Each structure stands twice: as structure tokens, then as C-alpha cells.
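Researcher: Let's do a round of design. I'm pasting the C-alpha cells now; please hold your answer until I've finished.
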């Protein structure tokens, strides 16, 4: 008898069913593919690249449990010429549409084992920096003041184009996660009311950790004129402002740019231009973990940057007598800090100045003498009030890194004299004295001088022996060579 014509088909269906495949006409289905590929980064994460070095993406690979190896797409860019933190995003998609993502952080810095500047982890290019829905638009000085004084956490204040005269905003204690951003780059022009206690922004001192101001960003603003001051951080603090980021600013014709205060920490000035200082420093760099990166300075005064010391969190410091401590007994003389009480760990750092341009001065500044310096590291040079102790009670800077800067005196008058780096050290350098400045590293800078007696590295007050400093890879040449 001839077998039924369906018999071979039945055998085929039986075999398919035994293999777990979907059987036509039986209602069986293969399980859906819902698992994304497994994505693996090659190389380190985070990854460190030295500024002006070469960056090669180590890449990533992805394998799917159904499709096998799948291609990986990388998005993002690293600029090894600029210090900063960069994020690379990797994406892999299988044929079923399942997506796997991974990210790598790349740090571009001055040295592999050196300082890491504070950089906020927010999208500063967005109108709503925190993606919080809290955006306040302002167009006048009074609106700006009210927006800051009443800002809830995670607020972006967008400044419309125009001039904001007589700016004087007292930032309340405890303010945090606030961004002040020009709607259009340098379209918002701020004119401070004055200097010191009339600066454009006053950061109130903190008596407790909860009162400290923190996580503030200033983005794309121009601040100019009136011999005023941009930022003043209150003295008399026990705690102070931290995590403050200044990005893409133009500061000019000011008495002073930034005064950070002894308890401040983790401030970064990045990709900004500071010029035509009218009297004092662009930044009086008290505190620790302070960084100046990727910025340009010209037509300064006195010295462009003044690197100073710090005071420990939790201990009140004052320069002058105050109602709570009329004889400044709260201040602790540095050489009385037995066992280095209150000091940062020996391997921690206070200042990073890297990948900047410091250009010539034209002597138009009233404070500008004919003998000056671009960068000054100084400790213990002022006695001040005999009870308060001034600089000799706060703690000296340590592990200061000055690297990859271009310093040029081109264009200054022939009778002017400007050295590159000055070290004033009452307690010397690299010794066991509690007043010693320890761990200064000056490397891979270029200094162009006009006069033969202009020097790259100069000992100042205290006549410290600079032979023990970590100095290497610097180029010193005459302008035009």
C-alpha cells in the first residue's frame, strides 16, 4: 500500500518540534530575543591622558547571545590639548533592536599622578543645566539678584543679552546646585557695584557644614569695569564655598577677579580670558584643590595669580578681631600645630595651574611697577595684626603643580622687568618645618623673556633654596627666537 502523501511532512514536523523550532500550523513560537548584547570596554576606565599627548581610543567589543559579535558605535570627542574630563559613549544594537550602552571617562591632565581639577557633571550647553525644569530667565540687575537669593536647588538662571549695572548679590548661606549662565556667550555683561564688600557676588561665610555654599557654575558671562570685583568669599569662616566652576568667562578692568578665601576648596577656572586688571590679582588663590586651566591672561598687575595657603574645615580663622573673638585667640599659629594637625594629607594638593597663556603687560595699571612676576607662590610674607598672625597662622600651599603654560613678555615696554614664577617662602621649601612649602612641581612650561635678566624661577621672601623643587622640561628663550 502506498504511504499517505502527508507522511514525510509529518516526520518533518516531528523533527522540527524536537529541535525546539516553531512548527508551522501548530501555534508554537520561538522565544523572543529580548537580551541586549554584552558590551565590554577595552583598556582603562577612567583613562588618563597627559595634556598635549596623544589619545587613541582603546575601543570596545560586543557579543549577542543570538547574533554573535555585533558592531559597536562610539560617540564623543577627546581634545588632548585641553585639560578636562571627557565622556565617550559606546552603543551596540542586535538585529532584534536590543541596545547595550557603556561609557568611558577620559581625564586630560597635566601629569598622570597629579591634581584632578573639579569639573561639574552636568550639561552646561543645555538651557536647563540640571534637567530639573527649574529655569529662571532674567534681564535686569534686580531680577538677577532676586533669582539668586530665592533660587531653589538645581536652578539654572539664564541671563538675557544686555548690560547689568551695579551688580551686588549676596549669595545666601546654604545655596547649592545653582548655575548662572549667559543665554548667548558673553552677551550678558555684568558691572560690579564695587570691590571687597561691594563685589558683584559675595559668598557668605559658613558656621556649620550645612551653611556652606556649593556646586555653583558661572558660564559664558562677561564681567567688566568700575574697578570692581567679581567674587568675594567672606572671611571669618569655619566652613566655606566648594565645588565652584567658572567656565568661558571674560573678566576685565576689575580691581580683582576672584578672592576665594582660606576655607574654600575645589574651585576651577576653565577656558576663560582675564585681562586689564586695574589693581590686584586676577585670582587671590586661598584654599585648596583650586585649578586654573585652559585660560588666557594679559595686561595684569602685581602678579596674575597669587597662590596662597589654606585653613582647615571646622576651625574658624580671622584676619582681624571680630565680636566673637576680639583678640583672634581662635587662630592657631602654624608652628603650634603639633603632628601637622589640620594639614591636608602629605600627598594631597592645593593648586594646579596648567595649559594657560600668560602674556605681556603694558604698564597701564596703576599698581603695575617695573619689576613684577606672572605667578607668585607665597606663604608667610605678611605679619599683619600681632594677635591674628595673618599669613603665619594659616597653612602653606603644598603639591602645587605649574605645567604646560606659555608665558611671554612680548610687547611689554623695554624698561619693564617680569619674571615667570616667584616663590616666597618664610619657612623654606621641602623641609620638615611646618611653615615649609612642600611639593612644588614646575614642568613643561615655555617662558619667553625680553630682557636677559628676566628669569623663569625666582626665590623671593625668605630666600628659599629652590634647588630641591621638581623642575623639568621647561623652555626658556628670548622673544622671537
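Researcher: That's everything. Go ahead.
Model: Designed sequence:
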Amino acid at each position: 500500500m502506498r504511504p499517505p502523501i502527508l507522511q514525510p511532512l509529518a516526520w518533518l514536523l516531528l523533527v522540527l518540534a524536537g529541535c525546539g523550532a516553531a512548527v508551522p500550523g501548530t501555534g508554537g513560537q520561538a522565544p523572543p530575543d529580548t537580551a541586549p548584547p554584552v558590551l565590554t570596554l577595552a583598556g582603562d576606565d577612567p583613562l588618563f591622558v597627559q595634556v598635549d599627548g596623544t589619545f587613541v581610543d582603546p575601543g570596545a567589543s560586543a557579543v549577542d547571545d543570538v547574533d554573535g559579535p555585533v558592531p559597536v558605535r562610539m560617540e564623543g570627542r577627546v581634545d588632548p590639548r585641553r585639560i578636562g574630563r571627557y565622556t565617550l559613549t559606546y552603543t551596540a544594537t542586535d538585529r532584534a533592536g536590543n541596545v547595550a550602552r557603556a561609557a568611558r571617562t577620559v581625564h586630560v591632565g597635566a601629569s598622570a599622578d597629579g591634581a584632578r581639577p573639579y569639573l561639574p557633571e552636568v550639561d552646561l550647553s543645555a538651557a536647563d543645566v540640571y534637567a530639573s525644569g527649574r529655569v529662571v530667565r532674567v534681564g535686569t540687575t534686580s531680577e538677577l539678584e532676586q533669582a539668586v537669593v530665592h533660587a531653589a536647588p538645581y536652578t539654572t538662571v539664564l541671563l538675557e543679552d544686555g548690560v547689568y549695572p551695579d551688580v551686588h548679590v549676596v549669595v545666601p548661606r546654604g545655596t547649592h546646585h545653582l548655575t548662572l549662565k549667559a543665554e548667548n556667550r558673553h552677551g550678558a555683561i555684568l558691572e560690579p557695584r564695587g570691590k571687597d564688600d561691594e563685589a558683584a557676588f559675595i559668598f557668605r561665610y559658613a558656621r556649620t557644614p550645612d551653611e556652606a555654599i556649593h556646586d555653583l557654575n558661572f558660564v559664558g558671562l562677561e564681567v567688566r569695569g568700575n574697578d570692581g570685583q567679581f567674587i568675594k568669599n567672606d572671611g571669618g569662616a569655619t566652613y566655606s564655598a566648594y565645588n565652584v566652576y567658572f567656565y568661558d568667562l571674560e573678566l576685565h578692568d576689575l580691581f580683582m577677579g576672584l578672592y576665594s578665601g582660606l576655607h574654600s576648596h575645589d574651585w576651577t577656572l576653565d577656558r576663560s580670558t582675564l585681562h586689564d586688571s586695574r589693581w590686584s590679582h586676577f585670582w587671590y588663590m586661598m584654599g585648596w584643590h583650586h585649578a586654573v586651566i585652559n585660560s588666557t591672561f594679559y595686561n595684569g598687575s602685581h602678579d596674575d595669580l597669587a597662590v596662597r595657603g589654606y585653613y582647615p574645615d571646622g576651625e574658624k580663622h580671622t584676619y582681624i578681631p571680630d565680636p566673637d573673638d576680639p583678640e583672634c585667640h581662635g587662630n592657631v599659629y602654624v608652628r603650634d600645630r603639633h603632628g601637622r594637625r589640620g594639614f591636608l594629607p602629605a600627598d594631597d594638593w592645593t593648586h594646579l595651574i596648567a595649559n594657560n597663556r600668560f602674556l605681556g603687560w603694558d604698564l597701564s595699571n596703576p599698581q603695575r611697577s617695573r619689576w613684577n612676576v606672572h605667578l607668585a607662590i607665597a606663604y608667610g610674607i605678611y605679619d599683619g595684626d600681632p594677635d591674628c598672625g595673618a599669613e603665619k597662622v594659616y597653612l602653606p600651599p603644598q603639591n602645587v603643580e605649574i605645567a604646560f603654560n606659555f608665558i611671554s613678555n612680548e610687547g611689554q615696554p623695554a624698561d619693564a622687568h617680569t619674571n615667570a614664577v616667584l616663590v616666597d617662602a618664610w619657612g623654606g621649601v621641602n623641609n620638615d618645618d611646618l611653615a615649609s612649602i612642600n611639593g612644588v612641581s614646575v614642568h613643561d612650561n615655555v617662558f619667553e623673556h625680553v630682557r636677559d635678566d628676566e628669569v623663569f624661577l625666582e626665590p623671593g621672601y625668605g630666600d628659599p633654596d629652590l634647588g630641591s623643587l621638581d623642575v623639568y622640561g621647561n623652555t626658556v628663550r628670548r622673544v622671537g627666537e
